[in-house]
Amino acid sequence: MRIDVLTLFPEFIDAAAAVGVIGRAQQRGLLAVRAWNPRDHTHDNYRRIDERPFGGGPGMVMSNQPLRDCLAAMRAAASEPAHTIYVTPQGARLTQRRVRELAALPRLILVCGRYEGIDERLIAAEIDEELSIGDYVLSGGELAAAVVIDAVGRLQDGALNDADSAAQDSFENGLLDCPHYTRPDEFEGESVPPVLLSGDHAAIARWRRQQSLGRTWLRRPDLLARMTLSKADRVLLDGFMQDWLRQQGSTAR
Q1: 126-159: per-residue pLDDT in tens?
Q2: Residue 221 among the catalytic residues
């Protein structure tokens, strides 16, 4: 997969894509990330990239010409069709389902805005999709682009050392992940749940499923509301809820 990024700070994208899973994916030839600076496509001595907004108001707006010329150069750099995404708080919320869909594409172009954003005419003419990583505002799109690169890049075949890791992530089955523990089995008076030391794989699987259901009920009930639970899942969740309410009662006393 190839991901090209339009950004005023290519060094940020290069650094973010050089480490961890994404860095290894590039070393293995599974992913290619390239950053492009639209200032390289300006036609004035000052390499100006922004103008004041029509109608007045604070801030500046990124200009049409250098961004369009940069996008044209990006698209011409490779033969694969490119799906072009503008990362913006006004976009649709990025979800794990959408990440998986994007990960199956051969090529993405990510456009990072700055200032008050980019000219609306460019969005209408050049952008296929607008995506948001959350209901908050950043100083630019680079952090959001780095999130998309990481989320999509780690799903490329061979990027993770254990392919099952991605399948067990939060949101993959509509639920949050269960708790995880490692050695030692006792630390500062706190012990690992005995079932995880039992060697009973069926019991461990039931416990993990119950914890995943319960954690979602506690932290993201909106996710549960979208699901139709099986009878077995309902029994597990009811058991978790009863145990949790009993513990809350004990704590209150």
Answers
A1: 999 999 999 999 999 999 999 999 999 999 999 9
A2: no
| 154 labelled catalytic | yes
Q: Where in the chain is the domain with CATH 1.10.1270.20?
A: 168-252
Class of domain 168-252: mainly alpha
Q: Is 133 annotated as a binding residue?
A: yes
Query: Does 113 show up as a binding residue in the annotation?
Result: yes
pLDDT at 172: 72
Task: Give me the residue label for tokens 């050049």.
Answer: 126
Is 21 annotated as contributing to ligand binding? no
* Residue 89 a catalytic site member: yes
Which of the four CATH numbers 3.30.43.10, 3.40.1280.10, 3.40.50.20, 3.90.1150.10 does domain 2-153 have?
Answer: 3.40.1280.10
In this structure, are strands 32-36 and 50-51 parallel, antiparallel, or unpaired?
unpaired
Judge contact between 112 and 87, C-beta under 8 A.
Answer: yes
Which token pair is 86? 């503008």
Residue 188 annotated in active site: no
The pTM assigned to this predicted structure is: 0.86
| Bridge partners of residue 112, in order along the sequence | 87
- In this predicted model, what pLDDT tens digit does every residue of 52-97 receive, in sequence order? 999 998 899 999 999 999 999 999 999 999 999 999 999 999 999 9
